[in-house]
Design a protein that fits this description.
Length: 210
């Protein structure tokens, strides 16, 4: 399967996440608090599957040079914050629940968020960003933005991130196979946004998936 086809399949998955968000927003307008200027999701800690990383990197490289330069400067601080988080997580190596809590409550500014509080790659933003703000199911648990107005204990239709991650894994495995480099068995490895933006794709694959 060619990379173009993989990107098209990825876009269908991303469109599905956006459609799920819009559906919930229409049905529960008082509960979904997302609006221009709200950047809570832009400080969440998460990683990208390879196919999404490659897609993001491709479109990032098409941005105007001055926007790229500013974003790369912001990557430095984001990488330092991630390293501090990694040090903190070492204290909970044998406590997965505590690690998950630390991840969920930690804040790292996404380098794609500019000084005016806007995402410079908003139309191409990752799936995690698209679904943020509505209830999502991950690892069998339902999670939602702390700023949202959904009632605790009430059942809502949300977005199945577990299912999306599974599809991202399959697309990433196909990407590695079609690219002719890396070990497809490592397609479940996740990459931080600052690393994606600052690393050429071939080097990223060599460093992460060999």
């Amino acid at each position: 399967m060619k990379v173009d086809s993989l990107f098209q399949n990825y876009e269908l998955l991303a469109d599905g996440a956006e459609a799920a968000f819009n559906k919930v927003a229409r049905e529960y307008p008082g509960a979904v608090k997302c609006k221009p200027g709200c950047t809570d999701c832009c400080h969440a800690v998460f990683g990208l599957f390879l196919v999404e990383a490659a897609y993001l990197k491709f479109h990032f490289d098409q941005l105007p040079p001055e926007i790229i330069k500013d974003a790369l400067l912001r990557c430095n601080e984001a990488e330092r914050a991630i390293k501090r988080l990694e040090v903190k997580l070492r204290n909970y190596r044998e406590d997965p629940e505590m690690q998950a809590y630390v991840y969920a409550t930690s804040k790292v500014r996404c380098p794609l968020l500019d000084h005016e509080g806007r995402c410079v790659l908003y139309p191409r933003r990752p799936i995690t960003c698209r679904a943020y703000g509505i209830p999502t199911r991950i690892r069998g648990k339902t999670r939602v933005c702390t700023l949202a107005g959904f009632e605790q204990g009430k059942s809502y239709e949300g977005y199945n991130l577990d299912q999306a991650y599974q599809q991202l894994f399959f697309l990433s495995r196909e990407f590695l196979a079609s690219y002719g480099k890396g070990d497809p068995g490592k397609a479940d490895l996740l990459i931080s946004v600052p690393k994606v933006l600052t690393t050429p794709l071939e080097l990223l694959i060599e460093e992460t998936f060999q």
